[in-house]
Design brief:
This protein is an all-alpha fold. Helix content is 50%, strand content 0%. The termini are far apart.
Length: 117
């Protein structure tokens, strides 16, 4: 087998070179460094391997995005249910008050007037 000869050193002019990444990052993406449990990384890497390739970091990003949307959907649902319960409770209280012939409070006193029997 023939041995490859080393290329002679050449002088490279770095005077106009720029520091930083060669490939520009995508807009809307931020590079960070975080520590994840080994179990979490193994899970997402296994998913990529099962799929036949891809990027486990994108899967982690998608999982986090889904969680955020799910959490906000829960908050919206909680607010809707709260409003519906409040409306129902007010209706039931009005119906019950009417059944007992209780008048509405007056604006000036804030108290319920007594019914004359």
């Amino acid at each position: 087998m023939k041995r490859a000869a080393a290329e002679p050193r050449r002088q490279i002019d770095f005077s106009r070179a720029k520091r930083g990444a060669v490939v520009k990052p995508q807009s809307g993406k931020t590079k960070i460094s975080i520590r994840l449990d080994t179990e979490v990384l193994e899970h997402f890497r296994a998913l990529v391997e099962q799929a036949g390739g891809g990027n486990y970091q994108s899967l982690i990003n998608d999982a986090l995005r889904t969680f955020i949307r799910q959490d906000s959907a829960v908050e919206v649902t909680r607010d809707v249910v709260k409003k519906e319960l409040e409306t129902t409770l007010r209706r039931v209280l009005r119906e019950e008050a009417a059944a007992y012939n209780v008048d509405k409070p007056t604006r000036t006193s804030g108290r319920y007037p007594r019914k004359a029997s």
